[in-house]
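pinned: reference chain
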Amino acid sequence: MATLDPRIAAVTDRIKDKSRKGREAYLKLMDEEGERGIDRTRLSCGNFAHGFAASGDDKKAIRTFSGPNIGIITAYNDMLSAHAPYYRYPEQMKVWAREAGATAQVAGGVPAMCDGVTQGQPGMDLSLFSRDNIAMGVAIALSHGMFEGVAMLGICDKIVPGLLIGALRFGHVPAILVPAGPMPSGLANKEKQRVRQLFAEGKATKEELLAAESASYHGMGTCTFYGTANSNQMMMEMMGLHIPGAAFANPGTKLRQNLTRAAVHRIVELANNKARLCDTVDERAIVNAAVGLMATGGSTNHMIHLPAIARAAGISFDWQDLADLSAAVPLIARVYPNGSGDTNDFHHAGGMAFVTHTLREHGLVHDLQPAGHDDFAAYATNPVEDGEGLKWEKVTESSNDTMLRPVGQAFQPDGGMRLLSGNLGRACFKTSAVEKERWTIEAPCRIFEDQPSVVRAFEDGELDKDVVVVVRFQGPRANGMPELHKLTPPLGVLQDRGHKVALVTDGRMSGASGKVPAAIHCSPEAKGGGPLSLLRNGDMVRVCAETGTLSTDADLSAREPAPVPRPPIGTGRELFALFRHHADEAEKGGSAMLDAMEAEL
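pinned: its structure tokens
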């Protein structure tokens, strides 16, 4: 490990300084929970008996404290391809816990919605707030006080952040995340994108589109593009919360099974050693996750999730921190949608082991005390089968420099995201997904308040020109901040026709989005009088990733905000009204609960 780059050190020190009060309060609470909080030894006989009444062969061991008891939090459902493999995990994990002299129980289940199913649909308005719901579900499950360690089964977009936020409130016990891996590669993502654009132009039938989508999303495991789900797995490796190299082994393989077994044995070891999650997830771990995000061109959704995860650990982390890290960290990976190969190709080229190796070699990450291993250097290795077990092999070279390169031969000198600011607020721009000649777009704006209106205008030929499409009232307080992934094909068509096109929105874009320049997560959001609410059709808008500018020439000072659309109802959205009313800005995490949580501390 090289000496830490002074730019990384400076950002880390700044985060520590501004987090001092919150971090001290958090660690004080964790100390108190460890000393006086509820656990098996403090339960009354009636409480305790309820906790092991249905434990079968493990009943005696739990009752007599014969080793740690591991709580399994599962996001299993068999509609979501990424989580379907978890079906048999709990019963297997109980066997592997016994091998290590411990027991395991399913502490609880949490929802896992699929953004791929809800993209462009009413259900997407529930997506971001499902993260808070998951975090609360983890808290409910662990509030029973029956567990000395936590194993979390989750992999996709809001699920991993929600699991980790919830577990951090029980940070006085150890925790580890157990992934299930990506599905094998199907139809190439570039071909899928091509058919989507043909359909948007009316040149492909719905049956042809469905055939392409089905060939791409075809089995168990995460989708193979490098979106939010697979970016989650990257971050958990960079934070040391996986068994080394666990992120991208495919489901249903012996390697995957052995990695899960190793995770169970490791969490038992951590529990026996009284390790704590709160010590693993510190300022350095948050910086490592951000560095990995920049280096690999990961999902823009983590510009919302990382600040929220950090806050759950008492850490203040914002977009300026991300921007400064992006300036220090080169882009070393190009994985679809930022390149042609998918996540499986990335893994076979060296994957997270090579990423960790080259970042460590250049002092761009912290050497943590990880949960998944005794030494962070182990994350520069890949697991392989060794008889009935595993061994780890060092990875010091990329086998495919079209998608994975060492720091000294990076694709671009800085990371994959830029912070934009100006009289239209602050926003994020994913440069790694967009050709450099499109980093600056200046054109008259056309304003919309939902996705279907944009699609109709495209179909009617109204957008066939240079245009900045503004989709406002898409923030957390307005409608739950849905992803606007449905807009990528029509805007991509306009761009391919030679027009200068950009998207500006206070909503989100999918981690799989790219190609079209987009200023997203605009803060403050339009609801409440944010600058986007003051724009009018035809105003000149400038989006520039080169200078970090998001602005308009129009004088906004004398304008009244546009009327706020009716709150979304139906498809259960009215049940989330409380979340919308209390949500904070995207830069703080777009959460409905974290401000209140911090106030109580």
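why pinned: The longest strand covers residues 440-448. Residues 185-218 form one domain.
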